[in-house]
Inverse folding.
């Protein structure tokens, strides 16, 4: 496939891991570049690919989106995601081939809508990546089976007014009941954002579970 525009943050030395970063709706790759830089600093052997969403944002100002929110009801969200999910999965696999890094050493890093895409991609194809770091997101629809080859880390601000932290608790509980390997970390007083503490917690979680 023709990849979306991206910012590549190269590994320091030989690349052993691939981190693929997906931004929120109305944002762009530049918004998540600082997160990519921080992850690259924490994991120097990781190449970080910070991706632009597939479409221009249709909400009235600049930025990109993975799927449109225009006139979307809650019931329509799964169908909107399902429509673009094959392209998202193909994007991940194309990047894996480009860098010669297998799925076990791939980490999907999402924020908000990017987290929705990352979680749904793993639900559709278990083992597409070895890890998911999902900030401030949710499932389009809750899973009915546990991923066997993917570890999921959820991180969420408890004061998030865009995507309620309740969705993170619901997702974690569902995954735990299904037997998945999942963690959930929240922070009081934090809204729809990646705080320094949540970033540090994400790095700690990854350090504990990345496959050597």
């Amino acid at each position: 496939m023709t990849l979306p525009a991206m910012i590549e943050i190269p590994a320091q030395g030989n690349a052993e891991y691939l981190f693929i970063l997906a931004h929120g709706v109305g944002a762009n790759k530049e918004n998540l570049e600082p997160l990519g830089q921080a992850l690259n600093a924490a994991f120097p052997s990781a190449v970080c690919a910070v991706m632009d969403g597939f479409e221009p944002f249709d909400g009235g100002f600049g930025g990109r989106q993975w799927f449109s929110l225009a006139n979307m009801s809650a019931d329509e969200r799964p169908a909107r995601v399902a429509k673009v999910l094959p392209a998202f999965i193909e994007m991940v696999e194309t990047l894996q081939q480009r860098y010669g890094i297998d799925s076990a050493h791939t980490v999907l890093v999402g924020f908000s809508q990017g987290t929705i895409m990352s979680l749904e991609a793993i639900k559709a194809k278990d083992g597409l990546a070895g890890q998911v770091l999902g900030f401030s997101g949710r499932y389009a629809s809750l899973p009915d089976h546990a991923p066997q080859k993917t570890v999921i880390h959820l991180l969420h601000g408890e004061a998030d007014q865009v995507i309620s932290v309740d969705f993170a608790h619901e997702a974690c509980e569902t995954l735990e009941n299904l037997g998945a390997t999942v963690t959930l970390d929240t922070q009081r007083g934090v809204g729809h954002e990646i705080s320094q503490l949540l970033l540090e917690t994400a790095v700690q979680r990854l350090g504990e579970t990345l496959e050597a």
Q: What stands out?
A: Helices lie at 29-42, 77-99, 113-124, 165-178, 196-209. The domain at 6-209 is CATH 3.40.50.1820 (Rossmann fold).
